[in-house]
Amino acid sequence: MPQYLPMNSVIVNKRGADRVRKGHLWIYRSDIVDNGGCAGGSIVSVSDPRGNFVGQALFSDLSEITLRLLTQSDETIDREWWRRRILEAAGRRRRIVADANAYRLVYSEGDLLSSLIIDVYDDVFVLQTLSQGTEAVKQLLVELLREEFAPRAIVERNDLRVRQLEGLEMIAGPLYGDCPDELEIVQHGVRYIVSPLSGQKTGSFLDQRENRLAANAVAHGRALDCFTFTGAFALNLATACTSVLGVDISAAAVAAARRNADLNGATNVEFVEANVFDLLRELESSGERFDTIVLDPPAFAKNRSSIKAAARGYKEINLRAIKLLSPGGVLISCTCSYHMSEEMFLEIIAGAANDARRKLQLVEKRIQASDHPVLFGMPETYYLKCVIARVVD
After folding, report:
1. Domain spanning 9-71 has what CATH number?
2. Which residues are CB-contacts of 233 (< 8 A; sequence separation ≥ 6)?
3. Which residues have a Cβ under 8 Å from the Cβ of 303 and sit 6 or more positions away?
């Protein structure tokens, strides 16, 4: 391995170096031995205490994540380097493009472009630069996207609180071109209206795209879609089920879901505004039964301290849903909480089935869509768990 310590060099301790060499892409402030007086947002060379080269990384002078690794090679990180990495990510999405015009083009660490997210909504690209390092090259990224993809517009959705940890402002707005307030996207034959500048996340929940297809493959009979938001799961269930009831506490979400149903001519789908926890109890009390139930709640566990409370919430909704399922009924249950491990989530569902005195058969374990790839060695890239199970008694 080359040994060098140029002016823009950071020395890290053995713990930080070993973490990177095992596949992780972050080095924390506590692992920094000497930051070399580097400027926040710069690209630096990283070495261990012996002077052995570790890699090159984005440097932050404020975040607890001081270094975000870009490469373990001694290569020039210039305009063409960024272009190549983006095009490599695009190449891995070629099969998706044939069936969907909305997908994640770059998934930060999962695509070895730490703290950078690029989403595509037809001819509008949405950019998130979540560290000082990617913020510093934001204009370069816009130029590269224009050159390689010729989009109608490029906007930023940098209104995430994580940017405050980097000393960056929260902002959303246009970076290039004319972005409409709304546009229509298509995913596997289902049409949706999205708002890149004002919708949830970057305009839609792209990470559930493949799980909706999996739900359609097992769905049947009368269906219930809990936390439906703008109706994406419900509309994917509609072609396989006799009827679908979508539920969300947000009036705006229900209105958007109804609009999407009209857009798709889905006449067997109904949406209601209600608290899911309350409605599940009411449906149980009234003796209702469903053949397919989807649970896709917002993240109950947003940090480690909230895991216990989150577990109770997941247990409650899964228990109620399992009780509502007819024999042979299918449960599609999701958690987007990174801090909720797969093992813990499976235990919660198993416990709910036991409390409901039902026998539940695991059909499939799924994760976020393939355009949100999980990087081995980087557990933070694995956050979405989706369990498909069947009642067999």
Report:
1. 2.30.130.10
2. 208, 212, 215, 225, 246, 294, 296, 332
3. 339
DSSP-assigned letter for residue 373: P
Instruction: Give the Cα separation of 13 and 20 in Å (integer).
Output: 11
Nearest to 310, CA basis, from 354, 348, 352, 355: 348
Q: Is 98 helix (H, G, I), strand (E, B) or coil?
A: coil
CATH code of 205-391, in short, is 3.40.50.150
Q: Where in the chain are the domains?
A: 9-71, 79-180, 205-391
When the candidates are 3.40.50.2300, 3.30.750.80, 3.60.20.40, 3.30.420.140, the CATH number that belongs to 79-180 is 3.30.750.80
Q: Looking at the annotation, which residues are catalytic?
A: 336
pLDDT tens for residues 80-93?
999 999 999 999 99
Q: Please, which residues bridge with residue 104 across strands?
A: 119
Q: List the alpha helices (DSSP H) in the chain.
A: 14-21, 79-91, 94-97, 132-136, 138-149, 209-218, 232-238, 251-264, 276-285, 307-324, 342-355
* Cα–Cα distance, 307 to 310 (Å, whole number): 5
- Between the two ends of the chain, the Cα-to-Cα distance in Å is 60
45 and 75 Cβ atoms separated by less than 8 Å:
no
pTM here?
Answer: 0.94
Checking if the pLDDT of 319 tops 50, the result is: yes
Residues 6+ apart with CB under 8 A from 277: 316, 317, 320
- Alpha carbons 293 and 163: distance in angstroms, whole number: 36
**Inter-CA distances, 107 with 104, 119, 356, Å:** 7, 9, 39
Give the model's confidence band at 45: pLDDT under 50 very low, under 70 low, under 90 confident, else very high.
very high
Rg of the chain over Cα atoms, rounded to whole angstroms, equals: 23
Equal fold, 79-180 vs 205-391: no
Q: Which residue has the tokens 């089935």?
A: 353
Report the DSSP beta bridge partners of residue 173. 156
Other C-beta atoms lying within 10 Å of the C-beta of residue 254: 21
